[in-house]
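Could someone model zinc ion with this protein?
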Amino acid sequence: MLNAWTRFLPRKNKEDVDNAIRGIVSHAYKNVSFYRKYYNQFGVDHLNIRCAEDLPHLPIINRLDMMTAGRAEYLSRDVSPDKLVIRHTTGTTGTPVTVYKSKMEELFRKITVVDAYRRNTSLTCPMTLVNVGPERKDGSNKIVEKIGPITIIKLFRDIPMGEQISILMSVKPTIMGGRPSVYWDLAKFLREKDIVPPSPRLITGGAEILLPHVRKLLEDVFRCRVADYYNSEEAGNLAWECPANPQLMHPNTATAWIEAVDQQGIPVPAGNEGHLIITNLYNYSMPFIRYDTGDRGILLETRKCQCGFNGPVMRLLEGRNENYIVLPDGREISPRIMFNVVNTGFPHDKKGWNMIDAIRIFQIIQEFNDLIEIKVVPGPAYTDSLWQAVEENLKILHPAMRLKVSIVDDLRPEPGKKFHQVLGNLNSRWKRERNDQENK
Ligand SMILES: [Zn+2]
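Reply:
Sure, complex below.
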């Protein structure tokens, strides 16, 4: 009999990982029809999956197949969806994903994120975490939230910059977290206004690659250590930046097992670039087993690291095309905000609306400064009227902005490339400063 609680160990050794893999694979086979059908179809016996090295016998799952199957298929049959925590990913992958977790699984996810912070700084309670630029979604609306000795401050994206600064100046942050492109806007504003913000112990980046020019700006403005984190809604913290070598990351074996595979789904040798595939080790409500993240990276030989950690090592890679959108008046907005301008045009609050039924995947492209093109792979519930509100949002951004919608059959990236939800092809300040830093 497996110890089902192994999945909730906040730090797992290889034996715990193998245990958790056996647990989740056999649970998924018995209780989740999506996996049972897949495994039967591929003729794999779940009992042959004994450890992480056996995972390549299982097929790779992609988010589009999972989402279109519907929740009756991908949720465990022993959970009731109304009792689960629901999160919607805002996607850098083009396909929206709904993630379900039990309250215990959600709590564990949060613990692993804070535990990963502790790899780069010492933490004592009480502490204040400042989340820079989140969206108001999934019922999250409070600026200040207290969980025991931890105060969480959310500087929501829609709060005017001046107001965000005055909130920030009134607190003493221990850790600040957010997307690099959102930090970039905040740090630029502080610098232009000559405001010296409080200095936290640690700034963490996530969800986008922390490019060298952003890291440098943040170190200058906030005068503290900046560390990159690889987090995802599907699993929580996947890897933290090595405190001894900022080029490297350590995969978090408490939450997931990461593999790097080639186009055919076959693991690539250590040191080679591949698609990152994850197996979530703790979410039994909605298992993610050999799930394609859409990210690319390199797994290196496991070894004792200079930082003291003895475990896996990786490098996270990304194509270099993510770029700011340039408006007709020269203003620049981040890819995340651009995504939001489009995404908030969809009727997410309408009863019966299920994004994946209307839109399988979409991409926002800018070739001219007064035109946004959206390429879309439509679902069965797709209608042209979906774009009306999106177009209005664009006009609020700038009245001269126009929208062009192109229906396409497929939007998968070219082999070896990462999919970009927002493809800005104009010459922006972001792009220029990034190139300057790289050429130094
Ligand atoms: Zn290390």
